[in-house]
Write a structure and sequence with these properties.
about 400 residues, alpha/beta, about 15% strand, binds zinc ion
Length: about 400
């Protein structure tokens, strides 16, 4: 047939499709289905964008070809794909009764046409599909190598090295958190961190930056920012039911995991922790985000009070909230795979940690006196929640 594509010509088309997958951030694999040298189906890898584990290039090309022919069998057709098919796609190629499979690069980890297994040489399964491998293999392999090389570089750029004298809880320990849809933010840029990685949540009105605390003309509290400090028995997750309530009140909400807790890095030595250090980190975080005045809700037992003394201009409003346990024991222990991670807990528990430096002025202490953290639970006692919300309004209006 005039103008009919040969294997190389078809593979060039498949490579172009693979490049489309790459442009979409997918592993670059492309496939075409040929009948009599004419392309009757095209596909490129799209599992991520389609939320579809089955959206491999071959499957998409097969579906297109079947639709074009109005037939669930592709007898006499050739599958041309840039990468050795996986088990799923090889099965689909057999089921569709392809006459030939042509692929470019081998896939040593998942290839089912000879690299890991060979379903096409399993006599009991296969009576019709002949395999040609290595067509334009260097180009196909280069595309894959470039892609993974690029991805490794991105990972390298976005991964913070861990300081030698610190530990970092594996992400998997936090995979089961409920009621915590918030995007993790990380920084190492605050000078006091000296290379440690701080985790925090930054939700609500991001436009609130340098907004001073003020009551607006309508008499309601204006937009502002709140810093929520967790207690020694938990981490930022303790505040999960407060974030929405504060967002609904126009607040920008910062919920850090203090160094040594939650997803933040954990120095191994107890002596790495002091009230002044944690205060420097929190003041640094607020400054790094360009916030000039921040209200503090404090469940730490003293850090908020210390901040409001040392940096009174930045932290002019403070309320202490009674600590409640973080939740089920498995959740409470999530940041601590073993006791080596608990140096911060031990430091905070020491009688001398908050020391005599922290003097709450009586008016600061009064706000939120009777409010417990778990009063905000949506499934809790309605009157307790109403009281907590009323407290928030008063606190924001103050
Ligand atoms: Zn596949």
């Amino acid at each position: 047939m005039t103008g009919a594509l040969d294997d190389m010509g078809a593979m060039r088309e498949a490579l172009q499709l693979a490049a489309q997958a790459q442009a979409a951030g997918e592993v670059p694999v492309g496939a075409v289905v040929l009948k009599d040298g004419v392309v009757i189906g095209r596909g490129y890898n799209a599992p991520i964008s389609g939320n579809d584990a089955c959206a491999h290039a071959e499957i998409i090309a097969i579906q297109a070809a079947c639709a074009a022919l109005g037939n669930y069998r592709l007898t006499g057709c050739t599958m041309v794909v840039t990468l050795e098919p996986c088990v799923m796609c090889s099965g689909a190629i057999l089921n569709a009764r392809f006459s030939r499979l042509v692929f470019g690069a081998h896939e040593p980890k998942t290839g089912a046409a000879g690299s890991v297994i060979n379903v096409f040489e399993t006599a009991a399964l296969n009576h019709q599909t002949a395999v040609t491998e290595g067509v334009l293999a260097p180009a196909c392999r280069a595309l894959m190598n470039d892609f993974f090389q690029g991805r490794r570089e991105v990972i390298k750029r976005t991964t913070t090295p861990l300081r030698e004298d610190a530990l970092r809880t594996p992400d998997a320990r936090f995979s089961d958190l409920v009621d915590w849809p918030y995007t993790p933010c990380y920084t190492t840029e605050i000078p006091a961190l000296n290379g440690l990685r701080l985790h925090y949540v930054d939700e609500g009105v991001r436009a609130v930056t340098a907004a001073p605390i003020d009551v607006d003309a309508s008499g309601r509290h204006g937009q502002g920012a709140c810093l929520l400090l967790h207690g020694a028995g938990g981490w930022g997750y303790q505040w999960r039911y407060w974030i929405e309530a504060l967002r609904a009140r126009g607040q920008r909400v910062l919920v850090p995991d203090l160094i040594g807790f939650g997803r933040s890095d954990k120095p191994k030595r107890v002596s790495a922790h002091s009230l002044a250090f944690h205060a420097q980190v929190m003041a640094g975080l607020v400054a790094a985000l360009g916030l000039s005045q921040v209200r503090v809700l404090d469940a730490s037992g003293g850090l908020g009070a210390y901040l409001s003394q040392v940096h009174a201009d930045v932290f002019p409003r403070l309320a202490s909230i009674e600590v409640s346990r973080v939740g089920a024991q498995t959740v409470a222990s999530a940041p601590f795979p073993d006791d080596g991670y608990r140096a911060a807990e031990r430091a905070f528990a020491a009688a001398s940690f908050f020391g005599d430096d922290v003097h709450l002025s009586s008016d600061k202490k009064r706000v939120g006196e009777a409010i417990r953290m778990d009063a905000m639970r949506p499934d809790g006692e309605p009157s307790a929640r109403a009281a907590a919300l009323a407290f928030l309004d008063a606190f924001l209006d103050a």
